[in-house]
Amino acid sequence: MPDSRPTPPSEPNERGPRSRNAGRPANGRDSARRRRGQAGRQGREKRTREGRQPREHARPFKPFTPEQLAERAAAIPVISFPDLPVSSRRDEIARAIRDHQVVIVSGETGSGKTTQLPKICMQLGRGVAGMIGHTQPRRLAARSVADRIADELGQTVGRERGQVVGYQVRFTDEVGPTTLVKLMTDGILLAEIQSDPMLRRYDTLIIDEAHERSLNIDFILGYVARLLPARPDLKVIITSATIDSDRFARHFGTWEGTPGSGRLIEPAPVIEVSGRTYPVEIRYRPLGPTTPSSYRSEASSTQADEPEESADEQSSGPMQLVLEDPDDELATLGYGMGEDIDVETAICHAVDELSAEGDGDILVFLPGERDIRDTEAALLDHLKGRGRRAGDDKGARPGDIEILPLYARLTAAEQHRVFEPHRLRRVVLATNVAETSLTVPGIRYVIDPGLARISRYSNKTKVQRLPIEPVSQASANQRAGRCGRVAEGVAIRLFSQADYLSRPRFTEPEILRTSLASVILQMASLGLGAVEDFPFLDAPDRRAVRDGVALLVEISALAQDRESADAAPASSQYRLTGIGRDLARLPIDPRLGRMLLEAERRGCASEVLVERRGCASEVLVIVAALSIQDVRERPAEHQGTADASHARLADPHSDFITYLNLWRYLAVQARDLSGSAFRRMCRAEFFHYLRWREWRDVVGQLRQMARALGIAAGPMGEPSTGDVVEAAQFGGAQDAAVRAVLAYGQGTASVDADQVHRSLLVGLLSYLGSWDETKRDYEGARGTHFTIWPGSGMSGHPAWVMTAELVETSRLFARTVARIRPEWVEPAARVLLKRSYSEPFWSVAKGAAMVRERVTLYGLTLAADREVLLGRLGDLVIDEAVAASRSHAPRAGSLEALAAGLVSASKDSLSSGSFEPRHFEELAAAREGTTARELAREMFIRNALVDSQWRERHAFQRRNEALVEQAREVERRSRTHGLVADEQARFRFFDDLIPEHVTSAAAFNHWWKDKRREHPDLLIYPASLLMPREATSGEGFPDRWQCGDLSLALSYEFAPGSPRDGVSMRIPIEVLERVSDAGTDWLVPGMREDLLTEAIRALPKGVRRLLAPAPDVAASVARWIEQA
């Protein structure tokens, strides 16, 4: 996509929130918060002055000099290979690398492919002209693999001369001049594409763990596939577990025609390396007798069109999985023997069971850091004095157990501890980093709750969520295989065998479980081109791409690129905006990220300030709540009780504010109660403890990510312990915390709810509804109709609402709803709005051309018949408005009809002056391409200046009206049509003098105020304008008739057929007897020539022919009479 700039992307583990203690505000924190608030404001001011702070760019590539190449070649160490399965196949692998550009190495974890493939490449002389780039999905794996390779080469990792192994992850770069093997996250490689599109700094790429199919891996595989023809010297090695290796071989094979759709000539070579494994016994220990796990998300656990396999079929292959005795009651009842227990309790029982099996370390898989910390605390409490924290073996006795956490945010030294020799049995608590990326030594036993935090797009809610959900069968088998590396092992699964068999065989590629809006946004950020043209292994549907682009345009992440051709792919017709670049750095659904950025744009700080309190922290808490499953539980057998419990914290106007009440309430209770008491409270009041914990994790992660964008979102304010005590004193102990929370939310320390809602609105523009009184429901976007979910806490039927979620069951329900004001929508929607206009009309009161505007958003009417100045429509071209709506017939008087020649006058007698249809006809026929501003100016000149249809009374107007009346009097007396200048001539007079910007009375008054000082007579009609043709002198048309001693008034009328046509004498009744008709039959001198002409024409034909032509003879006779 155009305008994409090099930006280091988030690594895969950073797209999902890393577990982090959200923290809570403590007493005496206000001063520190103010300091952070000042820093946040200063940062925002700096970005405002200097533009957004640039993100870190990858360094541009500079080719090696001959001297550097010689130094690098001399640095190659003596290479030896340990006794691993891949070592026995190294000659075959080396030949394949030498003879082919792409090689797929497939094998189970533990075969040694990750550590030995770089050494095989070095033996082939690769890594000198360019580095051997070795990608890992996670930072922890990149560091540990680099250490392991360097150790096998007798070196350490570093950037000093002579050191050949380095690594680069975010914030750490250990790559030097003689680095031959560079370990890095796949996100780092993607960032380098910006500055080095040909990847010249590498002569070999090893893409490890490709079977994980993260977005980054799919991006890299697609980009490399497109790059290979231009880099024939580049070697690519793709490592994968045995699953899907054929898929990679076909994707990188030789094709006749278009790759993927033509004929496959030859697939890329696949070398399968079996891992060294021992039999693994599988034991099922479900958490309850009926449900496979009480710790599950809403994600589907089935995979369409996948045939189920039996346990025996699943155990086939290089990994030998052996089931325990199926009649063992633990396999069906679990450790609770028919009672539900939580994950931590089950893990403690499993550790006891495995400890009795014999020596060997235990590996426990957990979804995130928070789960690891809670499990660590539970084990230390369960083991009493036998439990030891990591590294604390002082005074340890035989039989003691060391609890060792392993997750990405640990320091490098803490992570490396897992590979160090130790004398105590270990229980390693790890995230899924230990599933495939790392081989933890000495593991004999595995405990698998069967859960992982997996990024997934919810079609129901239309947002990207990070639920904790069951892992696939393949992932469960990978985890079980971790304990069969050194001896026979045992894997305990904390779910049932039926649950296992109901799970999908493989984990879906991330691109298929991610919002395409997120995919398009990431590709735009990384400069990977149009989605439609990118060689993905699993190409997304083109309609879904268009929907994703539309969403990104809606939230202002993409803008139309006017330089793009119309025939270009949909996604390439848009460019990334500044908002889009920031959204690409947030690991949440773009809609939710947009809400957070809007809170920051509105100046919402998180700290309590003297003047006011901002809303970034509140919006962050709401965004986190929308990205996880609802913390409230509503069991079927206790629905009424659960609803009553939750209703205590409901806000009658907004379910979003209810989330803030829930957060404050649970935070206060977690602060004031012990851990076990808090869990009991959650169960009693129908709150899901584990979801609350996940909510805190996501808030902490988002807060950390927000800081990287300059958003100072600190902890959200909550009632103090003293506030709760005070509420208990005045209202009783029951529900004291609820009352304290509600009072805090309504107090001055809380934020303005309107600010929160306006920040949320920008991400929910297609989720609005207006109340339809006729149908008694809400009309939504694009013609949908929905009703508010009965469980919502909002009361009544507000005229306008926004919702975070639309769920269709028996009908379409809106969940998480808030009332809004329609005037908030227009500034938020901007370019998404569609505006249509009625016929233009003239407003005497405003002295300007007006139209009635109708504003819609996705079919919802935000404003109807709103009067707006026509001139304010600016450069809206009438022709283009017609072309945009050719599918319907033009309405008489509309702008479209005006351009087409269909015109009408306004029927509004109150706001419209006389508006003759001929004005419209002239304007419609005058020119094509008239803009609204030009039309407004013409209408102003015609109606205000020419016809005086306005309320202003300037001196030049009075003078012009008098001059026009004088000229009309001459026209009447001379009985000559068209003698006085018509309205079009007077329009041209003003048109030459009035500036282009003057379209209304207000604009004219502002201009004329200064102009009249210099030229007071500028706008007065000249005589040459009013009487452009020669007129008869007024001497022959006396104003009075002398009859004896009487002087009688005369008036003139030019109205043929009327009794008053001609000249009329006004005779007072009192002098009527004194008046005679002597001389009146000759009319006035000015009419004598006409009288003579008509008299000649009345003569007999024979006489008349002698006096032809009659006008000339009449003129001669008239002159003779005057002379006589």
Automatic annotation (TrEMBL):
Helicase C-terminal domain segment(s): 342-527
Keyword check for Hydrolase: yes
Alphabetized CDD domains for the sequence: SF2_C_RHA
Alphabetized GO MF terms: ATP binding; helicase activity; hydrolase activity; RNA binding
Alphabetized InterPro entries for the sequence: AAA+_ATPase, DEAD-box_helicase_OB_fold, DEAD/DEAH_box_helicase_dom, Helicase-assoc_dom, Helicase_ATP-bd, Helicase_C-like, HrpA_C, P-loop_NTPase
Residue stretches of biased makeup (Basic and acidic residues): 42-59
Keywords, comma-separated and alphabetical: ATP-binding, Helicase, Hydrolase, Nucleotide-binding
Stretches for region Disordered: 1-66, 283-320
Pfam families documented for this protein: DEAD, DUF3418, HA2_C, Helicase_C, OB_NTP_bind
Species the sequence originates in: Schaalia odontolytica F0309
Ranges for domain Helicase ATP-binding: 94-248
Composition bias, Pro residues: 1-11
Name the record gives this protein: ATP-dependent helicase HrpA
Polar residues: bias regions: 290-304
PANTHER family, A to Z: ATP-DEPENDENT RNA HELICASE, ATP-DEPENDENT RNA HELICASE DHX37-RELATED
